[in-house]
Design brief:
Shape: flat
Number of strands: 12
Largest sheet: 6 strands, mixed, barrel
Strand order of the largest sheet: 2-3-8-5-7-6
Structural class: alpha+beta
Mean pLDDT: 81
Helix content: 55-70%
Length: 697
């Protein structure tokens, strides 16, 4: 112990004795700081990302059919994975719930669909048609008449704008044609005679406008949405980060759709409003400047050029109102709304916030900011597993988001649909469809024939009843079209829990009581699956998330590889530096040997000096790294994009300093310094007094 104290004193005395020690210390300092900060960041990101994935859709564990050709990937898959269905969720649920650590099992299935939405004129014509139908059923109130006149004036204004656009285009076009079908239709729709005779045949006039005019407006939209079919009540209960933003939760047991708030804002919102929001976010969160940011300038240019989406939504009264408001704001005498809007959207760093407030306080109330509103009925179309297109009418009850992940495109990329509608869209044969098929077969007299005998049955002379001679009969339309409907499939039907559970699903999320026992629980699920022949494949949340879940693991490998390379370089440099320092001390070491110092003493001296050198500078690096981590933990590291927003589980990552980062750094330092100093120490131990005297001569 006394010897160690002496050697330690010598080591601290020589700590800054030469430049080589400072070089060695600098390398150790940088490597340690990088390891502490990097590992703390990645460990914190791993923890935050697990919250995002577990809390949004995956749960702690996912199970799916072992017969699937592809791996389950809930996030970030470029091609739709080929996942085989679990035939009956009502069988696997009770079997899994018997496992002690399982809190709940939520049925799921991820799919994509398309939603088409008519243009602005389609929307106004639909409102006018509903008002006219109400009038035909006996509505004669003054309010209804005023409403019809308002809609008619709005349609006339849109038609007039389209006609002017066509006139401008025909002037620019070399192949100008005043006799084209569209020009003739526009001329008719904008004539006084057309509107004078409108009340005599409103439905005929509406049909003309819908078929000949509406398609001329190029602002209809076609949306693609991803969704999770699930038991919505169980999902809301077990994924407690989910919260309703607009509208309401789908009533228990009913069909319905909840749109992701992120998707709702980025796909269904008016483009002008969306661009204004993007500019505001860039200015406030990223401290961007319009004058220097080319992306913001491009958004402004788009808003200036694309004013029609606002103009088409305004009726004559709203148009005049907005013209006066813009004239006052811009201090302009311009009377053309398109020019005023273009000037309004020509924003800069000085006036943007004022224009932004004006947009939402004065322009937004005059238009529909969203194509779809909670309460609307949508027709959703999707390709079934067999490749044909299936459609489902479904009500949008509201929007939702996951707390802390409001701006994450990954967490907010999936909407939620009831499980019954999901099964319909995916092409599964539900009990309703099975009963309807049986009723149709019975009503039509359809029979099943042996495939091998099909030719004989159809074309043979066996007297088969499959082929019969056609007869001329009167068709009872009510009887033929009124297909037996013993099951209520209306949107308001309430499905029991057993009906929701019974049927196919693609996968299921499992929530655990104690997440620390995830490996033991996965092993138990495999046992239950094997025992009950459930044919389930079990994966943890990280595996279920696809390449997104592997991101932090890959980042850790990269970090450790970088640190390894740094310390390998450090090892070589330290080895050479210690060797040079040892050779410079040949006289000193020889003198010590002449005074009776043993080889073990010299060996220990070199090793202890190098280790203390590494630990001292490593400690400085650890302290500096810990300070940086604490600083980031206080202020947070901002998420610069939607991707990082998901990995940070919010707008900022607040790293925490783990004991593993500190002790791991110190352990690496000891290993590297001992290895790098071992050979120079052995060389120093072999120095003899004779060598020292020869060096002196």
């Amino acid at each position: 112990m006394i010897q160690f104290g002496i050697l330690a004193q010598i080591a601290f005395r020589n700590l800054f004795s030469n430049f080589l020690n400072v070089v060695i210390g600098g390398i150790v300092f940088v490597g340690t700081l990088l390891f502490v900060v990097g590992s703390s960041m990645l460990n914190s990101m791993d923890s935050a990302m697990s919250k995002s994935i577990i809390g949004s859709v995956s749960g702690h564990i996912q199970v799916y059919s072992s017969k699937s050709k592809d791996e389950l990937a809930l996030f970030g898959h470029f091609n739709e994975p080929d996942i085989s269905e679990i035939p009956d969720f009502s069988i696997i649920k009770p079997a899994l719930m018997e496992i002690e650590n399982i809190k709940s099992v939520i049925p799921m299935g991820v799919n994509g669909a398309q939603v088409s939405y008519g243009n602005t004129l389609d929307v106004v014509l639909e409102k006018l048609r509903k008002a006219e139908n109400k009038k035909r059923r006996g509505g004669h109130s003054i309010e209804l008449k005023d409403q019809i006149e308002s809609y008619k004036n709005h349609v006339r204004q849109i038609v007039s704008i389209i006609q002017k656009d066509f006139a401008n285009l025909s002037v620019l076009s070399e192949a100008r044609s005043e006799d084209s079908e569209s020009v003739i239709a526009l001329r008719k729709a904008n004539s006084a005679d057309f509107w004078k005779s409108f009340d005599n045949d409103p439905l005929g006039h509406l049909e003309f406008l819908e078929n000949k005019i509406a398609f001329l407006i190029p602002d209809s939209d076609f949306y693609s949405i991803g969704y999770v079919g699930t038991d919505l009540d169980s999902f809301k209960k077990d994924f407690d980060r989910m919260e309703i933003v607009d509208g309401q939760m789908v009533p228990q047991g009913q069909r319905g759709l909840l749109l992701s708030k992120f998707v709702y804002e980025h796909q269904f919102k008016m483009k002008s409003a969306q661009r204004m929001d993007d500019i505001k976010e860039a200015i406030e969160n990223r401290h961007s400047k319009i004058a220097k940011d080319t992306d913001l300038k491009f958004l402004i240019k788009q808003n200036k050029m694309q004013t029609r989406e606002i103009i088409f939504q305004l009726d004559p009264i709203s148009t005049n109102k907005l013209i006066k408001l813009l004239q006052t704001l811009l201090k302009s005498q311009e009377t053309e709304l398109a020019s005023l809007l273009s000037g309004f959207f020509d924003v800069n760093d000085e006036n943007f916030l004022e224009r932004y407030r004006f947009f939402y306080s004065d322009i937004a109330p005059l238009v529909d900011l969203y194509r779809i509103r909670p309460g609307d009925m949508l027709t959703i179309k999707a390709f079934t597993k067999t490749g044909y297109i299936q459609s489902v009418n479904i009500k949008v009850y509201g929007t939702f988001q996951f707390k802390g992940l409001e701006k994450s495109g990954l967490a907010g990329g999936l909407s939620l649909m009831d499980l019954v509608s999901f099964r319909d869209l995916y092409g599964y044969l539900t009990p309703e469809k099975l009963l309807e098929t049986k009723q149709l077969k019975k009503a039509t007299g359809a029979k099943i024939i042996d495939r091998d005998k099909a030719e004989e049955e159809l074309f043979g002379d066996s007297g088969s009843s499959i082929v019969s001679t056609t007869k001329q009969v009167n068709i009872d339309e009510k009887k033929e079209l009124g297909v037996i409907q013993t099951i209520d499939t209306s949107i308001n039907r309430i499905y029991s829990q057993s009906e929701i559970d019974k049927g196919v699903v693609l996968n299921a999320a499992i929530i655990l009581k104690d997440p620390s026992k995830i490996k033991e629980t996965m092993a138990k699920i495999n046992e239950v699956s094997s025992k009950n022949h459930l044919d389930l494949k079990v994966v943890n949340w990280q595996k279920a998330a696809g390449f997104i879940g592997q991101f932090v693991g890959v980042a850790k490998v990269i970090l450790y590889l970088v640190v390894f390379i740094i310390f390998i370089v450090a090892l070589v440099i330290i080895n050479n530096a210690v060797m040079m320092a040892t050779l410079q001390r040949t006289k000193e070491i020889g003198t010590m040997r002449a005074l009776g110092a043993q080889r073990s003493f010299v060996l220990s001296m070199i090793l202890i000096e190098t280790v203390i050198l590494g630990l001292t500078f490593g400690l400085f690096g650890t302290i500096a790294g810990s300070f940086i981590v604490k600083l980031l933990g206080h202020y947070g590291f901002p998420a610069m994009n939607d991707f990082l927003y998901f990995f940070f589980s919010g707008p900022r990552l607040f790293p925490t300093l783990g004991a593993g980062s500190v002790f791991g750094a110190m352990a690496i330092i000891i290993i590297v310094t001992v290895i790098s100093a071992l050979y120079p120490a052995l060389v120093a131990a072999r120095v003899s007094p004779l060598t020292a005297m020869q060096a002196e001569e």
